[in-house]
UniProtKB/TrEMBL annotation:
NCBIfam families associated with the record: cis_reg_atten (NF042934)
Source organism (scientific name): Kitasatospora phosalacinea
InterPro entries, sorted: Cys_resp_CS_actino
Protein name: Leader peptide
Length: 37
């Protein structure tokens, strides 16, 4: 793995994290039993 400046990665990481949260909320709305771990 290459050494990359974290400041360049931060916006992408935030976007991915936000999308992950949205997907988890969507999954819990569709299948409450599956996402409630």
């Amino acid at each position: 793995m290459r050494s990359v400046d974290v400041s360049n990665q931060a916006p992408g990481i935030r976007l991915v994290a936000r999308l992950h949260v949205d997907l988890c909320r969507l999954a819990s709305a569709i299948c409450p039993g599956t996402a409630a771990r």
